[in-house]
Amino acid sequence: MGSVSLKIGDGTARFKRATLCSSAVNILMLFSVITTNLFALYAFTFSPKQHLDNPFHHPHRNISLISQHVSLIIKEIDSSQRKLAQMEKELLGYDTLDLSRPNLAAELKLFLQHHQLPLGKDSRTGITEMVASVGHSCEKSADLLSQYMSYKVSGPCPDDWSLAQKLILKGCEPLPRRRCFAKTVPKPGLTSLPVSLWKPVSDKIVTWSGLGCKNFNCLNSKKLSRDCVGCFNLTNGYETQKYVKARSKNDFVMDDVLALGSGGIRIGFDIGGGSGTFAARMAERNVTVITNTLNVDAPHSEFIAARGLFPLFLSLDHRFPFYDNVFDLVHATSGLDVEGKPEKLEFLMFDLDRILRAGGLFWLDNFYCSDDEKKRALTRLIERFGYKKLKWVVGEKTDAAGSGKPQVYLSAVLQKPVRI
């Protein structure tokens, strides 16, 4: 009923359980074998009525008739096996990637190949074989996935991080592991904490392949998102004032929010953290923050790491790889906005609620409300969780890109209740 991931050495293996569905498949296979054997017995003992008195009157005709029956039986067996294999794939659910399709990379076939447990079924867990951990939606991008897995074993990996990110954004997550050496980029000039938090990062220590800009000056001249306008500038501009100086009533000062924390704030999770400034300000206050980000139009992950902070390269469609009730604080900006059906945001919110401890804070920071209906829908969703509203501000502010048109933003600090 599902699957279990285990860490074995440096590999992740996913195992399928022996389930009621797999028992049904075994019964069907047994029924097929019995049926085909009965057909075979009938074929070899059958004689036409007109030859009962002299069975050897037309021996060649009888042999031909028997051969036809045998051929039909073999075809029936092949058809039954194909149907059973398809039924088993549908019952397993995740095993839908067709490894027999042409032009599929050999490394991908090897990685996805099932491996029987050497000692048979595990009596404690019911596991019978090891199954590779790979995203279910990879089936929809099999050609791109095969391209990603086309490389020389033990050689250098292709410079294709943008291809990997494209697969992730298509739902192919987790990606399969590879047996090649990733490109290394020398990183001279890195400094230790706390100096690294605000020291400008050199253009030479990050990877610019696949990006339109080739330096940070170029990035700082663009609006990469609503929350990242000049966010790679650590010496001038608003990035140096974030969370310590408010520009509008929607901007909460970090020390004021931390004072609301029940039992203290020690570890946090930041969603769509831009260049990592939220985590940097928290680090100054001895709070460890993990920043979730992707390298969309900029080398976010490398920049955050160069500041001595923890980047997590993960999309918002992936279940967060954390245990329940472990974070004291979850911080989210407009990056929390996931386009599509309302249910998609619900799944995300429930996962955020899962990793936040009781009494922990959910800080919704300048969430852009494109219209009143979106604001009401978000408000109704938040109220379903029963969080205590410690701060709640809806206000207008001018777009940071300089359009001059006031836009509506929601900022809130909410406290997760104890549920029994």
TrEMBL record:
<keyword id="KW-0472">Membrane</keyword>
<dbReference type="Pfam" id="PF03141">
    <property type="entry name" value="Methyltransf_29"/>
</dbReference>
<comment type="similarity">
    <text>Belongs to the methyltransferase superfamily.</text>
</comment>
<keyword id="KW-0735">Signal-anchor</keyword>
<dbReference type="GO" id="GO:0032259">
    <property type="term" value="P:methylation"/>
</dbReference>
<keyword id="KW-0812">Transmembrane</keyword>
<dbReference type="InterPro" id="IPR053223">
    <property type="entry name" value="Prob_Methyltransferase"/>
</dbReference>
<dbReference type="InterPro" id="IPR004159">
    <property type="entry name" value="Put_SAM_MeTrfase"/>
</dbReference>
<keyword id="KW-0325">Glycoprotein</keyword>
<feature type="transmembrane region" description="Helical">
    <location>
        <begin position="24"/>
        <end position="44"/>
    </location>
</feature>
<dbReference type="GO" id="GO:0016020">
    <property type="term" value="C:membrane"/>
</dbReference>
<protein>
    <recommendedName>
        <fullName>Methyltransferase type 11 domain-containing protein</fullName>
    </recommendedName>
</protein>
<keyword id="KW-0808">Transferase</keyword>
<dbReference type="InterPro" id="IPR029063">
    <property type="entry name" value="SAM-dependent_MTases_sf"/>
</dbReference>
<dbReference type="GO" id="GO:0012505">
    <property type="term" value="C:endomembrane system"/>
</dbReference>
<keyword id="KW-1133">Transmembrane helix</keyword>
<dbReference type="GO" id="GO:0008168">
    <property type="term" value="F:methyltransferase activity"/>
</dbReference>
<keyword id="KW-0489">Methyltransferase</keyword>
